Amino acid sequence: MEGVDFERWAVILCKPDAVARGLVNRVLGMISDTGFTVSNRLDLIAEPWQPHVVYRNLLADTAPRELDLPAYLDAAYTGRQITVALAHGEPGLHARLRQLIGHTDPTRAVAGTIRGDLGDDSLAAARAEKRLVRNLVHTSDDPAGARHEFGTWYGSGRPLQVSDFDRCSVVLCKPDAVERGLVDAVLKRIESAGCTIANRQDVIVQAWQANVHYWDLLVDRGWFPDRDIPACLDDAYAGKAVTVALAYGEPGIHNRLRQLIGHFDPPHAAPGTIRGDLGNDSLERALTEKRLVHNLVHTSDDADAARRDLGTWFGAGRRLLLTSNGVPPQPTHTNR
């Protein structure tokens, strides 16, 4: 968990009563509808030690209490199914989530909160029946709590598999950008558009990376009788230097970056786009020379493409870098 920014991550615990009542999807939906990104949903059977750790402050409290809290926790959680998930947002999300879930006693939770709208228990009923109140959901109190709860529910030492690819794109500065010394200029243009650039890395391309990246061109190579696509990819990429980086921004980043880099054929790219301002090649010339067009830069098409691009260019198991954070259509003559 080292390096994870728990100022921006919280753990959501959908308690056994939420699972038993079939309310997990509604609970998580209310959280995501409020603007948080919910990911890494995991269904678990609670072990005895886990609620003890989560409620350690209550268990260690020396103030007098009427209830047998350890026994109540065991009865409420041990062997019961729960669902956990991660919520991502801006710093301060822990306090906002606590407001969203509402008062501990559902009868005192206001309308619009999760417990206020979905709760069906009360603290008075719980005390009368000598048990914990059933209030559906818990979220981390603060960053320190999120750190402890992540280790509790997701496993000590388990890497944080955050998948907020709606806010992250892979930037590939192609061999022509490297050869022309334009990598800094390309990344600066992206940064100036409001993105945060991180994890810049220089890569010598292996043949398989180009093949995976341009899988659609290879599958539909029959649409390109004017060029030998596998040979073109080997010639353009294999053994060549590229620079990759991650660009972070708001949801919709993929479309915005695709507009910023411009049309795949530089002469058709509008002024103000990267390819329009910096490009010096054309599809016409590339077709004449039976090669791919040199157009400087690629950014991920969408969230699914960003996931593939990350594995392709940064390597398997590198999703920790994100902690900060059908039938294809008929192809056109592009190389993105």
Automatic annotation (TrEMBL):
Its cofactor is Mg(2+). Its EC number is 2.7.4.6. Residues 166-321 form the Nucleoside diphosphate kinase-like domain. PANTHER family: NUCLEOSIDE DIPHOSPHATE KINASE (PTHR11349). The keyword DNA damage does not apply. It is an enzyme of class 2 (transferase). The lineage of its organism: Bacteria, Bacillati, Actinomycetota, Actinomycetes, Kitasatosporales. It comes from Streptomyces ferrugineus. Keywords: Kinase, Nucleotide metabolism, Transferase. It holds the Pfam family NDK. It comes from the Bacteria. GO terms for molecular function: nucleoside diphosphate kinase activity. This is nucleoside-diphosphate kinase. Signal peptide: none annotated.
